Amino acid sequence: MGRSIWRVFTGNDKIPYMNHKFVINGYGAAFLRIMGCECDRCLTEQSQVNCSASLFSFDDEGNTVHHVLFDAGEGVTNQLTQSPYLKGKQSRLDWICLTHWHPDHTKDFNRLLASHVQGRPVVGLSKEGPVNLYCRSGTADWMWQIHEFELSAFTKVYQSGEFLNPGVLLPPVPLGLPNLTLTPITVSHQNGDMNPLNKHEHRYCCCGYLIESESTTIGVLWDIDSENSWLENPETPEQITAVSRLKNADHIFYDCTFWKEKTTPKNHASFDHVQRYARVLTPKNSWLVHITAHVEWIGNEGFGWTDDDWNRETKRIWKEKGLPGNIGVPQIGQEFDL
Question: What is the CATH number of domain 5-9+17-30+49-337?
Fold first, then answer.
């Protein structure tokens, strides 16, 4: 099948002013529950969904007029069917913006797109064109290997067209929305940066996102590994610019898979990293995502922790060290106005 690949450009469509909300669909790590595990986190009955969020735009009457989805891992489709902003004829999916290609960020890709297409006639909506998909070029190459059918049948792919190192702001995603900008940020994510054509070759494939309205800034920094030192010590002009744009954000969502920093490079960041990043970036609110219960040995701090455990211990340390702003774990369905 022929590929539909478009290079990124900056949209400048004249559309009436809109209101926007950033809504959490999920914040869980790759393994939401482990078979046979009896830790507190595995036994909890609360919903667990891989890291994902939606950016909704509304007209003056409160109708949903645009929907950007960040990542489509396990449980995301179920969560979207429960969203009050996608009920009936408000159902829509304008963009999917991927951080990277790993299964816990793309596992629901087929189901999501099929559900979107099948749902249109059911609720009396006409069939629309393909869903716009944005990702870095390395992730696009992985997606063509793993999801060629879905990409060919349901999407129009916008890929970044570059191979830049971490800490670079890429051209904004062409959403065409007024008073809002969505800017990808290159990041390092160890095994997410493998070249799909040569697994032994390193190639940067992953990104975070900077969401900016006239009044609010949100940073999305999942997934990132332990080697993103540019966030606390930017060296190049591009890194200095990226940090300056993230600085003093209203909300930053950080990868926090580990409780303590490891002695060797790891595929994810720790709470120790989050503390250092927050000292430099000074956001009003720091949010921990990609948290899990199974990366520590049994008996160590962090093993089996619930959200209440993470909230209690991180708030205690935040207060003791006088770190800037607030710290916590978001809730599924939590909303942030832009």
Answer: 3.60.15.10
